[in-house]
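agent> fetching stored inputs for the S-adenosylmethionine docking request
agent> found them:
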Amino acid sequence: MEKEANIQSEMFDNIANSYDKINHILSFNMDEKWRKKIAERLPQTRHTKILDVATGTGDLAIMMAKHSKHTHIVGIDISNNMLEIAQKKAEKEKIDERVIFKNNNVTNLPFDDNTFDYCTISFGARNFADLDKALNEIYRCLKPGGRLFIIEFSKKPSNKIIEILYDTYSKIWIPFIGGMISKNKKAYTYLPNSINNFIHWTVFVKKLKSVGFSSVHHKKSTFGIVIFYEGTKI
Ligand code: SAM
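agent> prediction call returned; pasting tokens
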């Protein structure tokens, strides 16, 4: 599992500089709107502590900090180059006192039990080499009553026509456009493949429940291309 994490961190290190630009292009700027749906779920209460797992270049962490002015956010990731970009963005936005970034693996979080009010993961869950261990660690670090919000791509959009278009787009256009801009076709072949190799949403919902989360819900968005999941620690 450690070897897989090293492969992941090396891959994301290599594409970090072009990651945001390619995300916006390939998603037709929808990535911002999808993350915003999570940020808008957060309260404006003081001293809210949030853990953003697989924070990457920090877009969700920064969006949440800007949306909820009293939150304290820790973004963790295993790619130093992604984290460096995240840190620069937080400094530019002058929110680096409330948002900190750390290099940590989700399977071994350096936080006490019951630390966070919320945990978020945007487009990172399918990349975890050990999803069960990751979800158990997140559960441990959430406070009782704490909530987990996840956005992830779905392997099967709801509509047959969209499914065919999405399949062609993932198999041909994402490797082509992503590969051309990042000069790393392998990474942009892996990324859509990882959507296809990820578990079906029904299995993911069961997994969240088996880890211990209650009030587990999911909601499909954008023709079922993206799914929002949430659960509460008992
Ligand atoms: N959350 C960001 C976003 O919304 O764009 C980044 C998503 S990116 C597709 C996936 C991220 O997961 C990468 O930055 C990668 O380094 C990170 N990652 C993969 N495995 C991880 C692990 N075991 N622990 C922490 N981060 C991990």
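agent> quick read of the result: The two ends are 29 Å apart (CA to CA).
agent> awaiting further instructions
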